[in-house]
Write a structure and sequence with these properties.
This protein has four helices and six strands. The protein is an alpha/beta fold and about 200 residues long. Strands 1, 2, 3, 4, 5 and 6 form a six-stranded mixed beta sheet that branches. Helix 2 packs across helix 3. Residues about 1-15 have low confidence and may be disordered.
């Protein structure tokens, strides 16, 4: 009987240890309302656990085939193992109440020289802290890398940098997984981010 009582305690301690910080929007370091517009901060949560995404396939922001593969690899490797359910939307919706959740773009328009990628909310969701449609724009010419896709996708589901987390973590702290800054620093989502995603969705 004593052994049975110890097993749940050990599991509970393991779960608490995995999430070293709360970096899921909103936290005490952010406002509680999702802000709309390019360059807005902090990132918002997506509006439900069923995440539909699209990769721009024509025009200025079209992803090249190798960049499309990188997006699929990062989603398969890092986000599909979480409680989020990612689905590719081959017929994206850009207006109304059922917009495609994440639109991936390749390009540098509007990005400051020091910024490799950006995620922003285009339309607020049903709650003040979530977004119905988010855009991810990442530079081309070698900038569309696995770690950066993991990082910007993290923002699109609400994960923040360490300086907005509670307790605060340095933005380069490896426990932030692919949410470290700069965004090329770590390939994997990691236990902390996975715990925050699963606890939210």
């Amino acid at each position: 009987m004593v052994a049975m009582a110890l097993v749940p305690l050990m599991v509970a301690v393991g779960v608490a240890w995995a999430a070293v910080t709360d970096n899921m929007f909103p936290t005490e370091s952010t406002g509680s309302s999702c802000v709309i517009g390019f360059g807005s901060h902090p990132p918002c949560q997506t509006d439900n656990r069923e995440v539909y995404f699209y990769m721009d396939s024509s025009g200025e922001y079209k992803l090249e085939s190798e960049d499309r593969s990188t997006v699929n690899d990062a989603i398969d490797g890092e986000y599909r193992p979480t409680d989020l359910a990612f689905h590719y939307d081959s017929s994206p919706v850009f207006e109304g109440s059922a917009e495609t959740d994440i639109i991936y773009q390749e390009g540098s328009t509007g990005l400051p020289d020091s910024v490799a990628g950006r995620t922003w909310c285009n339309a607020r969701g049903g709650e003040r802290y979530n977004c119905d449609q988010q855009y991810i724009r990442i530079r081309g010419n070698g900038g569309y890398i696995y770690a950066r896709v993991c990082h910007e996708t993290g923002h699109a589901v609400g994960l923040q940098h360490g300086d907005y987390a509670i307790p605060w973590l340095n933005k380069t702290d490896s426990r932030l997984g692919c949410m470290v800054t700069p965004s090329a620093g770590h390939n994997h989502l990691g236990d902390n981010n996975r715990e925050n995603i699963d606890g939210t969705y």
